[in-house]
Design a protein that fits this description.
By secondary structure, this protein is mainly β. It has four domains: 42 residues; 378 residues, Methylamine Dehydrogenase, Chain H (7 Propeller); 100 residues, Elongation Factor Tu (Ef-tu), domain 3; 80 residues, Immunoglobulins (Immunoglobulin-like, Sandwich), CATH 2.60.40.10. It contains five helices and 48 strands. It binds copper (II) ion. Keywords: Membrane, Transmembrane, Transmembrane helix. This is DUF1929 domain-containing protein. One of its GO terms (biological process) is carbohydrate metabolic process.
């Protein structure tokens, strides 16, 4: 800053203060508020303030482009894919109005993309070729108790025949042997054949284990008198001979209680260049709220979700092969709550932080640990504080990824609990016996925190709400930057828009961070008016873009660098570069972003040349497209160059 600019600034501050004092002196409460607000506006726009705290700006799309964005992913074109599907809106769902937008945050253009299915509450992850894999979504909205007219629930269809599977069509009737009540299936179901069991020593035949198919059934007629009290066996209509003898249903109580959302099996790859969804093989299981995580071999693991009858998928996980575009079950089963936070570790195993987003029994798959998908061994990690407040917590792999330290932020009690945690917890997976320790605390208990890794190794943590879905006007209009080296949080400028459930954040290639969504249950503090989905996007410009110096430039260089390989780029500021990072672009929903990671690169400089080397470990540097940032000694990052690691 020049002396003259400094004097100019000092004079402006003096005038601003005088205005506030004059207004305050008039004693009018409205005027006072007007004055403080005006002063606040003035203050947050001062260069010194922005250089220390950054700045927030609301982006409002033209009305016809607004949508209830639930999912967002940064594409390798630098554009952001915004997916609503039906956007948690029953009217949209009933009308089959499914929405997707592509937004260019630099050119400020937005376009509509035809959406082939209800991708509301789907799962997603970045693929090696730059496509985004998207799997699962919504088959049916939840029905609350009182709205459920026909008694219904899960029917387990058993097949005792070891020689063949059996398929029952939609509309199959089941009549209880004890209760005499008849229920009808909503979909076809394939029941696998029974398994023969033999004594491993003698080879003696011990009997059959029936094959089991799961299907949703409901009463033929409305009303409470068709509810059942307890478990019963059910005769299947329309079968004859052996089939009638070998096939039967078992159901627990079939009642008028709340019916959860139901998932779909459909999967797509989104092509960022054609800007289109491409249909691929459907998953084996229907999933609503699944997590997709890249594995060591570049295949994609799909875990958890509610299935096509609204039940937590019973531990059946599956893997997508991007080569064949087909899914296979894993050999062994393990059950997690919905949207579990699962990250690929440098040793090829999976780290589960315990973060998740909202469905599943409170005693299934809640404890954090390290999971070997092949052997299905799971080693628990101790030390987590507020372990019963992990739902809607956020987990972020702290930069640089090489250190393998994760932070778990906030979280709330299971279901609609009003309780929430103000803790951050940190675990160092490179330690001999990893254990969580508390990091610096937030001011308030925080569900749904948004967290984005920044190119200078800091982490931006923003928003969330104290109560479930922002109840009682509990949105938190605060943001902090976490300093990974000092293990400290510092408060920065406040966001302008409250964001809770169905929100997220994404680091953009120019070093800014975009925020989307929020789905308050109520619009008022008294919790009497229904909430409205937050359709505005907000962009945070971190302090590093308000420094005295320009962003370092970065140009030239190869677009593809192999693991273990090097590339030479040009920068006029090469001599001042202190950090070089490859950042995997975010794909985020429901406080779950298992893609984002920032990898430190070794580099050398020579004049205006900067030569960097990509680490060899394929679990650290997963194949795919990355943002390459260089950051100078002041912590100011360049704009990113896109680099593909094949
Ligand atoms: Cu949701």
């Amino acid at each position: 800053m020049t002396d003259r600019a400094g004097r100019r600034r000092a004079r402006r501050i003096a005038i601003g203060t005088a205005v506030v004092l004059a207004l305050a002196g008039m004693n009018g409460p409205w005027l006072y508020r007007f004055g403080t607000e005006k002063y606040h506006q003035y203050k947050i726009n001062q260069p010194e303030y922005k250089a220390a705290n950054g700045k927030w700006e609301i982006v409002e799309f033209p009305e016809e482009y607004r949508q209830n964005t639930i999912h967002a992913a940064l594409l390798r074109t630098g554009k952001v894919l915004l997916v609503a599907g039906s956007g948690n809106n029953q009217d949209n769902f009933d009308a089959k109005r499914y929405d997707t937008r592509i937004w260019d945050p630099v050119k400020k253009t937005i376009k509509k993309v035809p959406t082939p299915n209800d991708l509301f509450c789907t799962g997603h992850t970045q693929l090696a070729n730059g496509n985004l894999l998207i799997a699962g979504g919504t088959k049916r909205y939840e029905k609350l108790k009182g709205d459920v007219k026909k008694a219904g629930g899960l029917m387990l269809v058993q097949n005792e025949n070891p020689d063949k599977p059996i398929t029952l069509p939609a509309g199959t009737k089941f009549t209880g042997k004890e209760n005499g009540k008849t229920f009808v299936s909503k979909d076809p179901v394939l029941v696998p054949r029974a398994e023969k069991n033999f004594d491993p020593e003698t080879g003696e035949f011990l009997g059959n284990t029936p094959g089991v198919g799961r299907i949703y059934v409901e009463a033929q007629k409305e009303g409470a008198k068709y509810e059942t009290g307890t478990q019963d066996n059910y005769r299947v209509h329309g079968l004859t001979g052996d089939d009638a003898r070998n096939t039967y249903g078992i159901a627990e109580k079939l009642a008028l209680d709340k019916k959860d959302f139901q998932g779909i099996r459909d999967a797509y790859e989104f092509d960022p260049v054609a800007e289109k969804y491409i249909k691929v093989d459907p998953m084996k299981e229907a999933r609503w709220y699944p997590t997709l995580t890249t594995l060591s071999d570049g295949k994609i693991l799909s875990v958890s979700g509610l299935d096509d009858i609204g039940q937590l998928v019973p531990g059946k996980n599956e893997i997508y092969d991007p080569e064949t575009k087909e899914w296979e079950y894993t050999d062994k089963e393990r059950q997690f709550p919905t949207y579990p936070a699962l990250f690929l570790m440098q040793n090829g195993k999976i780290f589960y932080s315990g973060s998740n987003a909202g469905y599943g029994p409170d005693d299934v798959g809640r404890e954090p640990g390290v999971w070997d998908v092949e052997t299905n061994k799971f080693k628990k990690i101790p030390g987590l504080s507020d372990p019963d407040l992990m739902e809607t917590s956020g987990t972020v792999l702290l930069p640089p990824a090489q250190d393998e330290k994760y932070m778990v932020i906030g979280g709330g009690g299971v279901g609609e609990s009003p309780r929430s945690s103000e803790k951050t917890r940190i675990v160092d997976l490179k330690a001999d016996d990893p254990a969580f320790v508390d990091g610096p605390s937030l001011d308030k208990g925080t569900r749904y925190p948004q967290a984005s890794v920044l190119p200078n190794d800091e982490v931006l943590i923003s928003g969330g709400s104290e109560d479930y879905r922002g109840r009682s006007d509990s949105n938190i209009l605060e943001a902090r930057i976490y300093d990974t080296e000092k293990n400290e949080l510092r408060r920065v400028a406040d966001p302008l828009v409250g964001r809770n459930y169905h929100s997220g954040s994404i680091l953009l290639p120019d070093g800014r961070v975009m925020f989307f969504g929020s789905d308050s249950l109520f619009a008022d503090k008294a919790n009497t008016k229904p909430g409205e989905f937050e359709q505005r996007v907000e962009i945070y410009t971190p302090p590093y873009l308000y420094g005295d110096e320009e962003q370092p430039d970065l140009a030239g260089g190869p677009q593809t660098i192999k693991r273990g390989g090097s590339g030479t780029f040009t920068s006029q500021d090469a001599a001042s570069v202190k950090k070089v990072r490859l950042i995997r672009p975010s794909a985020t929903t429901h406080v779950t972003d298992v893609d984002q990671r920032s990898i430190a690169l070794d580099f050398t400089t020579d004049g205006d040349q900067i030569t960097l080397t990509v680490p060899k470990n394929k679990n650290l540097v997963q194949s795919g497209w990355y943002m390459l940032f260089v950051t100078d000694g002041d912590g100011t990052p360049s704009k990113a160059q896109w680099v593909q690691v094949p």
